Every structure is written in structure tokens, then in C-alpha cells.
Amino acid sequence: MARIAALAALSEQPDGLTRTYLTPQHQQANELVAGWMQEAGLHARIDAAGNVVGRREGREPGLPCLMLGSHLDSVRNAGVYDGMLGVVTAIECVAALGDTPLPFAIEIVGFGDEEGVRFQATMLGSRAVAGTFDPALLDLTDRDGVPMREAMARFGLDPTRIGEAARRREDVLAYVEYHIEQGPVLEDEGLPVGVVTAINGQARFRLTFEGMAGHAGTVPMGLRRDALAAAAECVLVAERLAGERPQAVATVGQASVSPGATNVIPGAVVLSLDVRAPDDGVRDALAADILAACEATCAKRNVRLACERTHQLGSCACAPWLRGQLAAAVAAEGHPVRELPSGAGHDAMAMAALADVAMLFLRCERGISHHPAEAITAEDAAIGARVFARFIAGFTAGRGGA
Ligand code: HGY
Ligand code: MN
Ligand code: MN
């Protein structure tokens, strides 16, 4: 808990946690985590994408690894456990192994970007490790217009070498991530931990509305092309259409209004749209319906609409052989085994392109996450760590393993 507090202090904002990819705070977090990795007997390095990677050799050097990890970046004004708990706990669990020789190596990765806050493309760190990082992403800019390739150079990385962060399939036995649940299910059932069955897919879009700015006092209502009024109607359309499909969700979480003055009719608006569902077909159909309804709304209002897909990840199943080993560790620690899906996205989704993946969830207070009120208890943190440590110590490479 003290280490999480130390990481939470590395923030771009003075009163709360915001830490995004390739910032000085990311650099500081990497240094802190690398130090803890070294103390725990891991050899730590920063990879070509800015992830911090620690490695503990198995009973002989060079064996394929069990990869553990989560992310060190955050959303804006975040909770402090999302991502960080998984990294800090994995280090603690490896430290607890002491010198015990294992028939596999262990690597822990603190991914530099999962949330995608700075460049609007998510899981940049895990995609680089999985070998699915598209170099075209390097041209994305942050809100100050800084391209990712330049941010990388400022961070001390060579953007032309990002491919070197990619790992070979034969070197990774599995990727297993420990994370807070970010939902209310475990708390509701009085259970400290849960084993994830699958991670819901997600699709994200940027919607740009172009109307006509004008004088708020002189242009009659019937002659306006108000971009914000059109966008507002589209937000409600997304809410209504998602509500009609069980388990599907749609969120508009960002809106920017131009020129943004009390006495000016909004001329342009940019919205983000995030659409998720356990079934990729349901999600795609919902996204198509929302975008079609937005087009119709804008046509009626004589506002131009441009839709751009910024992100797409298919739903991701956790490997049964890994789920079984996590469940065995939960049971051996004396807790009921509860399996549940994840509505939140995780690095494991990107890592599934490289290796079989699985996740262990820890109960969090009232399911609150992506909010400063995110909370867990120290007692639960200890329970989760014991389960995870037991899983690691007993890990046996299965399908795809050595
Ligand atoms: O948005 C997500 O699901 C994740 O927390 N980045
Ligand atoms: Mn998150
Ligand atoms: Mn997370």
C-alpha cells in the first residue's frame, strides 16, 4: 500500500493522480518500479516502448518466462490501484519466492500506456511487447500537438526501434495480470478475489460535428447550425440505443466545443464514443446503429458529421488452463472460486496476440474506478497477493508452454 501511495505521488496534477505515457512522471514511475524490481532480485530495464521490464531467471538462464504485469499509466484524476496494484503485487510475490529455483523465468512488465489518454490510442505498451504496435501510430499527436515519435525521443527512446520491444512467442509461456475488479460483483457477493473468464471487446470513435458559429444574440433559432445541439442529441441517441441491448454499453466521455464562448453559437464539437459488449457482433451492430442515427440527426440539423474509428479490440477469452491454475490457487487459499467477465479493458487483451492470457481480480469498494474514490483494503491486498504468489510458485506451463 505504501508503494502504491509512492507511485500515486508521481502525478501531472498537484491534487490527484494523472500520469500519462512518455511524461516526466512516467519516467519517474519507471525509475521507482525498476528500483523495487532490483530489490526483489529481478534484473530491470526499460524497453524500446518505455515499459519497465524486470526478469528473474529460472533454474537455468534463458528459460521461457511466465509474464506478469499491468500498467503504470492512469486516466485523468484517476484512482491509484487501477494498473499499479498488479505491478506492485507481482514484484512483492516474486520477492517472496526468494531463491527458490523454478523451471521457468518470470518477467514483470509495468506497461507505459494502457489507458490511451495522451494519444487516444490505447495499450501502446502492451501492443509493442506483443508485436502488434503499428508504426503509423507514431504520428498521433497529443493535445498540445506533440507527435508520439517526438515524445518518445524526449523520453530517451528511439521511435524507429520500437519494434525491438516485441517478444518472441517461444519466450513467453503465458501472460497473467492481477487487477482490481473495477465493478461491484465481488463485493456484492462477499468475495475477495475472482478469476476472469473473458474481457469484453471495445470500439472507440472520434465524432467531429461541424456547424456554423455565429452571434448568440442575432441569429434566430430556426437559422442556426449549432454543432453542440446536434452533438447533444447524438449523446442521447447513444445512451438510448445501448440501453436497448442487454450487457452493451456506450459512453461519450469527452467533448470539446469551439469556439467555446457564452455568446457564440458552437461552430464545431468533437466527441469521443466508446462502445462495448461481451459479443463483438453485438458491439459492432450497436456502433453501426449509433453512427447511423447520428448521421440522420446531423442531416436534419444541417451539421456535417465525420466519424473516425480510433480504436478497436475484439473480446478476449482467458485460457482455460490458466484459469484452472488461478482457480486452484484461490481455492487453496480457502476462498470460493468465482469466475466473472471483465467489462473493463486490460493489457491482457493486447498480450493475447503473443501468448495465452488470464487475469485475477481483487474486490474494490463499491466497484468505483476511474475515479479518485477507487479503494481497496489492506486486508484484501494481502489476500490477493497470497493467491497470486501461490499461483506463481505452482505455475505449470500448459498449452503452448515448454
Ligand atoms: O477503458 C478501459 O476499460 C481500461 O480501463 N483502460
Ligand atoms: Mn483503467
Ligand atoms: Mn487498468
What features would you describe in this structure?
Helix content is 32%, strand content 23%. The protein is an alpha+beta fold. The chain folds into two domains: 2-199 and 315-394, Zn peptidases (Aminopeptidase), CATH 3.40.630; 201-313, 2-Layer Sandwich (Alpha-Beta Plaits), CATH 3.30.70. The radius of gyration is 22 Å and the shape is globular. Residues 75, 82, 115, 370 line the site of one manganese (II) ion (MN).
Structural descriptors:
402 residues, alpha+beta, Aminopeptidase, Alpha-Beta Plaits, 2 domains, 9-stranded mixed β-sheet, 5-stranded antiparallel β-sheet, 11 helices, 16 strands, globular, binds (2S)-amino(hydroxy)ethanoic acid, binds manganese (II) ion
CATH class of the largest domain: Alpha Beta
Estimate percent helicity: 25-40%
Small-molecule components bound: (2S)-amino(hydroxy)ethanoic acid, manganese (II) ion
Could you give me the name of the CATH homologous superfamily of the largest domain? Zn peptidases
- SS-based structural class? alpha+beta
Determine Rg (CA atoms, Å).
22 Å
Instruction: Characterize the quaternary organization of these chains.
Output: single chain
Distance between the termini: 35 Å
CATH architectural grouping of the largest domain: 3-Layer(aba) Sandwich
What would the principal axes of the Cα set say about the shape?
globular
Total number of β-strand segments? 16
Major β-sheet annotation:
9 strands, mixed
Low-confidence runs of at least 5 consecutive residues: none
What name does the CATH topology of the largest domain carry? Aminopeptidase
Q: Let me know the average pLDDT.
A: 97
List the domain count as a whole number: 2
Number of helices: 11
What letter string, H or E per element, gives the SSE order?
Answer: HHEEEHEHHEHEEEHEEEEHEEHEHEH
Portion of residues in beta strands equals 15-25%
